[in-house]
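Complex record, two chains
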Amino acid sequence: MTANVRVSKQTLTLLAALTAKAASWHYGYALSRQTGLQSGTLYPILMRLEERGWLETQWESPQTPEERKGRPPRHMYRLTAGGRAWAMEALTAAKSKARVTSRAAGLTCIGAELTP
Amino acid sequence: MNAQPKLGVSRAVDRAFATLVRIWPADSREWALAMQAELPEIHNSQESLQWLAGGIMSLGKAWWTELFRGGNAEGKNLTPVKRPGALAGVTLLAALALLILPSAHQGLKAVTGSWRSNQSYYAYHDELMSMARDAESHGDAKMMAFIAMRLGPPSDMIPLANKAVAMDPSLIWILSQAHYEDYNNPGTRDWPAKLEAWDPGNAMGYMVEAEVRQGEFNPGFKKPYDAIESDPQWMEAGRKAVEAPRYDNYRDRRLAFDREVILAHGITDPNFVAASRFTRWPNSDPASFYSKRLLSEARLALARGDKETAKRDAWTVVHFGELVRGHGATDMERYWSFQYLKPAFEILQPILVSEGHKDEAAMLSQETEAMTLRYFAGGGFSSWSPSSQGWIVTSSVGMNLGAAFSIVLFAVLLLAGLWLLAARFADDLASGKLFRMACWTARFAPAGLLVSIVLLAASYWPSLAAIRSYLDYPVNSSTVRSLTESAGAVYWLPENFRHSQTNSANHQLIWLFVVVAGLFTVAMIVGRNMINRAPRVKAA
């Protein structure tokens, strides 16, 4: 399932943000602030996720003119059911890999300490 | 969340984003609108600019996807594609009709031929051999000689030249034109004697003799190049050349002969016609080394007060230099002649002054000054006049780009046409990314093809005029210069590409080509998206 999308560090960061409140809709700028991803990184990832059916998108529902105050409707995002499953799988795999890497790094450190 | 008065930066970002949305590929424009819709939430100028930068990056990625993947990967929400209309058909017909122009179809032939020649020195070998077999079967000695002067491999060229001369002894002079392909081939050993017997007194035969001797003395140039100076046989050939009463490199004879064969056989390939400019000139080394030796002896004689010996030796060199200058007919030979004349004049000037011939000495001084200005102060020899350099480079870039784009666009048009034709019979081919690409190509590539062919025809026109002038009028210096420059224009860009790895000065030309090709690509992408622009999506 993960084969078609490159699960980069940035993608994982975004997935973590989207799965944190999986049922809620998210806005682009808020996601950018939450994850620290620049828009030039964030949106291409969102586009790829949407292309693969892992992200659903929706424009804000019409608001009253008073609520809108000249603002255009915003685009909102949340993971689909399939997207949530895939995201969990990708995040779990990344965590396991991180554990292995940190363990290996620890061994290297020990080795370094033992080296005269 | 209240709307606040916009700062200058925010307003500029708003405007820039509006432009971004307009030029965003239609199939994924919704994402541009999504990014734009976030702008009112950003209240910091720096963040606005960063958001804009991200938008530009995303636009680049969207263009990339559009160009190479034909829109978004799943092909969803694609704008309806327009099929090619009558305008595209008329444009295509106009482009193809332009190919009837001689400067278009002959230009295409010349440029693609130059690419072939650039790939291999023997690029035309198979065609030439086929023509040679045909000429032999018809007993056509002139055609055989014509081909021998263009054939590369000595194993084919030498027997063909010998057969042509055996059939028509008046063609012996072609041995001087064909010989330079191989200095050390037993099949050419008797050629100098034949040339000297047929045209006694011409320095050309002795210079060919020196070349043959050089091949025997230093096969494969395994010894140092200068080692030949110690060979008395080689130096003797140089002496005979310098003291010869005449100098004729057969340029006019060859140009007239080539023209006769070209017209008689209706040869139209510009690469064969323009090859006539490659009039053979001999290796000047034997004459040059012998002249240097004579002038050195003249200086020694002058130092010991022997003016007569000094004058005799210097005048011998002047005589040869004047022969080459007067009859050499090519700029390269004139350049060589000045290398003999200048030091000889410098020896003669003080002698003439001491003998009271001040006017003659002043004349030699003026000549020396003129030579220095013409050939030595200007950074050396160039076969093109400075005034011609500009048009040669411009037309070379124009005709090569025109030909390259014509071929590429014609090929993609052909593929698109086949796809659209197949789509008429198979409904499943009439949708999807490839169908969209085929429609787009069929709509816009004819205009590109038209422009490319016009560019090719216009750039090649001066070269065609030079070839026509050569074929229609008696040969003169102006004809030869035009022919040389026209061939230079055809070969200049491919040659620069070929040598770009060893000559860093030419890298700028490579970049010029890359920039032009890149601009064309960007223009195609922007044009495509502007034309495909969908009405702005009203969200929600």
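Note: Helices of chain A lie at 9-20, 28-35, 39-51, 65-68, 81-114.
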